[in-house]
Amino acid sequence: MLLSLKKVGKIKEATININGLTVIAGKNDTGKSTVGKVLYAVCRALGMYTTFFDDLEKDKLVANTVIPLFKKYIANNAGTSELAKELASLLEDIPNNPYNQLKVNDLTLEQVKKLLSRIKQSANNDKDINVLLDEAFSEITKIEKTPAHTKLARTLRTTLRFVFAGEVLNSKYHETANLQISVNNNEVVAAEISNKGITANINEILVTTFFKRVLYAESPLVLENIESAFKPHWYEMQQFIKRWSSTGAWNQPSVNEDLLQFIQKQIFGDSQIVFDEKNNTFRYQVDNTATALDMQNVAFGMKSFSLIFLLLKLNLLTKGATLLILDEPENHLHPEWQIKYAEMICLMVSKGFSIVLTSHSPTFIQALEAYGRKFQIQDKASFYLAEKIENENYSRLTDVTSNIERIAENLIEPMDKLFLGV
């Protein structure tokens, strides 16, 4: 799979291969994280564009037409119709809902459509109700006939806005940006982004072969009870972990037992992650005799490994179907654990997992290259160097897979200047 970017954020132009392990290396402020953010936003949009668009339009339909219709029908049939009672119950508040939504908001578009059909059958010659019914069915027809590329553009606009806080274009030039994802030289999706909006094209057949899930780990702090609805990747991962653990998945055998044993032996030792069923959360226990600690009291480095452990244990990572994006995962890790983390990553790729990560650590990147050779994943590994373009507010991404030494030279340059005066 190839991701092509042009004038997206800091990236002036880049073509990136996503095939097993993709490493984006470089100094700070060179646009490394842009790649992961774009991938997350596009993959999320591709995975939900139909339902997302339908739900948005359904919510508008419910607010503008369906609720007034329900109220009109209830007023005309109070006490004489079981359907009126059913509609009245749907106008009740959803319990413990922070957004003050009604039960009718929980209905799918198809469920709304079926209810409207039932109302039509019993409305007889009620002119006012039939007018509202005609409006509702007309809007539903528009939603159902909306082209896929329109649905994708609307969804992609939303995912990009949340991931980039509405700032996808370069902050200095504000030039039109383009992105494209292709598989085997066949375009899956292409989008043009400007101040005027987003246009998109989509191959609906090839989308079915795309990643079914994308997880973006910006920080292991996601394991703490710090929720952020303004960072969708953060919130989504927390919800995935909570939802899957509450279903009993924690106590079920994992298909990733070999990887779990690696983390247990190499990092945890006698320590373990325990599940607090009462509070539906995870805690860290140094041994069987110790009090289990809240994750906010656990070392940052241990949280880094714990996050991967949980995703594997809960089977949230699926070989070939899940894309895992890690933003500078070596942060807060001692060089020894950076090397262990690199070994874990390469072992995962050798088992069939797909991982995209950014880094500015020469130790970590050299370890990735070394373990890539050990686990024989060279044909699945791509390394890129992000560098600022002189006198421009852009960066370039260069494929250095065949010359990874360029990354080390770039990242240790400040040390050479300090100690060698170079």
Question: How would you describe what is shown here?
Answer:
This protein is α/β, with parallel strands linked by helices and about 425 residues long. Helices cover about 45% and strands about 20% of the residues. The protein contains 13 helices and 14 strands. The strands form two sheets. It has an eleven-stranded mixed β-sheet with strand order 6-5-4-1-2-14-13-3-12-11-7, sandwiched between helices. A three-stranded antiparallel β-sheet has the order 8-9-10, with no helix packed on it. Helix 3 (about 110-125) runs antiparallel to helix 4 (about 125-145). It starts with a strand and ends with a helix. The model has no long low-confidence stretch (mean pLDDT about 90).
List keywords for this structure.
alpha/beta, 11-stranded mixed sheet, 3-stranded antiparallel sheet
How can the largest sheet be summarized? Answer: 11 strands, mixed
* Number of helical regions: 13
Helix content: 40-55%
Mean pLDDT: 90
- What is the radius of gyration? 25 Å
**H and E order:** EEEHHHHHEEEHEHHEEEHEHEHEEHH
Distance between the termini: 40 Å
Report the uncertain regions: none
Structural class: alpha/beta
Shape: globular
State the gist of this model.
The protein is an alpha/beta fold and 422 residues long. It contains 13 helices and 14 strands.
Secondary-structure blueprint:
Layout: E1 2-8, E2 11-17, E3 21-26, H1 32-77, H2 82-90, H3 109-123, H4 127-145, H5 148-163, E4 177-183, E5 186-194, E6 197-202, H6 204-207, E7 213-217, H7 232-246, H8 257-268, E8 272-276, E9 281-285, E10 293-294, H9 300-313, E11 322-327, H10 335-350, E12 354-359, H11 362-374, E13 381-388, E14 395-399, H12 405-411, H13 413-420
Parallel strand pairs: 2-14, 3-12, 3-13, 7-11, 11-12
Antiparallel strand pairs: 1-2, 1-4, 4-5, 5-6, 8-9, 9-10, 13-14
Helix pairs in contact: 1-2, 1-3, 1-4, 1-5, 3-4, 8-9, 8-10, 10-11
